[in-house]
């Protein structure tokens, strides 16, 4: 499911549009991810707790799961790093990840359509999405000396 709501929609509008009940935890989680793209669950938990006070870890995980299932968040899982959540959904963008610090950036498809959705052999599958992850060192880590063997995969 993809998000088609306008960018100016409030978290409450997004939740209603996805058929979800509006709860303080869901609104706070959407705010948290909106403020911190590619946020970890721990970062979302800290932000939600700062906004609402006491909230359980399980409640935040349940909210993240519901928001992801509804297409309001996208979960990405770079190898060797914790899962991250973003509000940019409904397009075919990819990610670039720093091998050292885990910083993540968005990378738009370099062509006007999604060429990566046409594999050379689909093995009979109906392809719905493709994930491309670029790996390297961010400018900050590059300035500290590589310290990473570029031939080693994550």
UniProtKB/TrEMBL annotation:
What Pfam families does the annotation carry?
A: FUR (PF01475)
| Keyword Nucleus on entry | no
Annotated localization: Cytoplasm
Entry's CDD domains? Fur_like
Predominant place of localization: cytoplasm
- SUPFAM superfamilies per the record? Winged helix' DNA-binding domain
Q: Which family does it belong to?
A: Belongs to the Fur family.
Protein name listed in UniProt: Fur family transcriptional regulator
Species, as recorded: Promicromonospora kroppenstedtii
């Amino acid at each position: 499911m993809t998000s088609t709501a306008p960018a100016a929609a409030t978290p409450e509008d997004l939740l209603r549009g996805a058929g979800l009940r509006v709860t303080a935890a869901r609104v706070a989680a959407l705010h948290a991810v909106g403020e911190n793209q590619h946020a970890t669950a721990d970062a979302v938990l800290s932000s939600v707790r700062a906004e609402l006070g006491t909230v359980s870890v399980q409640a935040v995980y349940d909210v993240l799961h519901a928001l992801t299932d509804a297409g309001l968040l996208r979960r990405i899982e770079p190898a060797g790093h914790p899962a991250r959540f973003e509000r940019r959904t409904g397009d075919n963008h990819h990610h670039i990840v720093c091998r050292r610090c885990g910083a993540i950036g968005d990378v738009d498809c370099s062509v006007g359509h999604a060429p990566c959705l046409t594999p050379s052999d689909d093995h009979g599958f109906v392809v719905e999405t493709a994930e491309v992850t670029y790996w390297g060192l961010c400018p900050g880590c590059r300035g500290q000396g590589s310290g990473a063997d570029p031939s080693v995969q994550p």
